[in-house]
């Protein structure tokens, strides 16, 4: 068993889980795993996707920690251990994605001055969208960024325009904070949740283990308002003219067969960035590239390590 696999179902002894308070007093659950003394390579701020908890990425954290990186993460407001924004604790709701950006801006402003450089931000799925939006809007200013299966468009059979219109209509005829569907990552009867996320059954079972160990951290489907905001925020970001002026070096890992986010939208957006590298995976990868079977995951980690070595040399 690889050393990193030892951390998949246990918080590392050197890590600490605390609370960080936003400007309005809201408490967000925070994870910090400092690099070992004398081995500091830099600092990573890693942000997961909708419904994620940072425990899902402990195996990858262990990989980077072994290379000397300090690792920090927090659960987005309204999910994980960072409270809820809906009366239904299983509903992933937010009124406005700007709330996420405000939290990211405030957290980064507190984290960056004390974080040993170089500083790199990572974002998976919704986290990738919010990291890129934070970069474009000047909310964060790291030395480099890595986006993994970023949510730069939603995968929908009706297309983004009709999808957004339908979601907006549903917020008008009922509670916007209600569940958009009953279960799973999307309203589909032909794909299981596991097949949407990973081909690695053992890694999928790790998430189920955490669901049993810490059921209070788990989330279900999004609200209709979350969907409206996801469609609107990704639409605005794709059209943002500031993308062409974004100078932070960026690595983007895309799963072309992704069933949750629009890989084609991400690839098209990457072409608007002046300093972006694009790594594409085929049918061998589902949405959670860093929790995929070893051939995919190992390649993804190797590409990330190469990128960090070439673009953010040690301070």
TrEMBL record:
Tell me the superkingdom of the source.
Answer: Bacteria
**UniProt keyword Nuclease, yes or no:** no
Q: What is its EC number?
A: 3.1.1.5
Keyword Hydrolase applies: yes
| InterPro entries, A to Z | AB_hydrolase_fold, Hydrolase_4, MAG_DAG_Lipase
The entry's keywords: Hydrolase
Which SUPFAM superfamilies does the entry mention?
A: alpha/beta-Hydrolases
Q: Which GO terms describe its molecular function?
A: phosphatidylcholine lysophospholipase activity
One family from Pfam that matches here is Hydrolase_4
Serine aminopeptidase S33 domain residues: 39-294
**What is the name of the protein in this document?**
Lysophospholipase
What species does this protein belong to?
Stakelama sediminis
């Amino acid at each position: 068993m690889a050393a990193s696999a030892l951390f998949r179902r246990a918080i590392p002894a050197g890590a600490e889980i605390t609370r960080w308070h936003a400007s309005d007093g809201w408490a967000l659950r925070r994870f910090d795993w400092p690099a070992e003394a004398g081995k500091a390579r830099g600092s990573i701020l890693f942000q997961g996707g909708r419904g994620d908890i940072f425990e899902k990425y402990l195996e990858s954290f262990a990989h980077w920690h072994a290379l000397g990186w300090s690792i920090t993460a927090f659960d987005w407001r309204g999910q994980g251990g960072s409270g809820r924004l809906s009366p239904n604790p299983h509903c992933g709701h937010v009124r406005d994605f700007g709330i996420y950006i405000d939290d990211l801006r405030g957290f980064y402003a507190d984290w960056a001055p004390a974080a040993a450089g170089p500083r790199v931000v990572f974002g998976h799925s919704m986290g990738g969208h919010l990291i890129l939006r934070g970069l474009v809007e000047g909310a964060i200013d790291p030395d480099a960024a890595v986006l993994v299966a970023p949510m730069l468009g939603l995968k929908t059979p009706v297309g983004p325009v009709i999808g957004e219109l339908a979601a907006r209509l549903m917020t008008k005829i009922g509670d916007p904070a209600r569940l958009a569907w009953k279960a799973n990552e999307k309203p589909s009867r032909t794909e299981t949740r596991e097949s949407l996320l990973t081909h690695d059954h053992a890694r999928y079972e790790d998430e189920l283990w955490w669901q049993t160990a810490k059921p209070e951290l788990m989330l279900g489907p999004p609200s209709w308002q979350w969907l409206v905001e996801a469609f609107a925020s990704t639409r605005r970001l794709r059209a943002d003219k500031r993308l062409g002026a974004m100078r932070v070096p960026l690595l983007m890992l895309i799963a072309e067969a992704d069933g949750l986010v629009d890989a084609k939208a991400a690839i098209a957006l990457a072409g608007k960035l002046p300093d972006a590298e694009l790594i594409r995976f085929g049918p061998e990868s589902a949405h959670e590239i860093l929790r995929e079977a070893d051939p995919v995951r190992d390649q993804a980690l190797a590409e990330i390590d190469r990128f960090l070595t070439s673009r953010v040399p040690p301070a």
